[in-house]
Specification:
This protein is of the alpha/beta class. It is built from four helices and six strands, in the order αββαββαββα. α3 links the parallel β4 and β5. α2 runs antiparallel to α3. The chain starts with a helix and ends with a helix.
Length: 117
């Protein structure tokens, strides 16, 4: 039983890598990472889930390479994965802050930080 308990603790430490869709489905944050990282001109980004129906995307881009429909591609890609009810706010920034630990995380779920609903 101890081994199972340790395994469970290890999983719990990674819950902020998961996204909670408005319809209650949980999915790995990588499903959203792929949407953003494959757009030309994206230099750096961070996806922050505020609520099940609201995701913020901080993005640093090379505007010369970033396509005119880049923002729409992000919104459409997120809605394909999370459902049409999700609101996506995209903020173009000069710098994306690191975590308090100094590490960079591509996906942060404020929902998972509070515990699964």
């Amino acid at each position: 039983m101890r081994a199972a308990s340790r395994y469970h603790e290890k999983i719990q430490g990674r819950t902020t890598d998961f996204i909670d869709s408005p319809d209650g489905r949980w999915q790995h944050g990588l499903s959203l990472v792929y949407v953003v990282r494959d757009i030309p001109g994206v230099e750096e980004f961070k996806i922050i889930q505020m609520r099940p129906d609201h995701v913020r995307v901080l993005i640093r881009t090379d505007l010369k390479q970033f396509p005119e429909d880049g923002m729409k591609c992000i919104v459409d890609g997120f809605r394909t994965r999370m459902g049409q009810k999700v609101n996506v706010t995209i903020e173009v920034v000069d710098e994306i802050p690191r975590e308090d630990s100094g590490k960079f995380r591509y996906v942060v779920s404020r929902i998972a930080e509070k515990g699964f609903r």
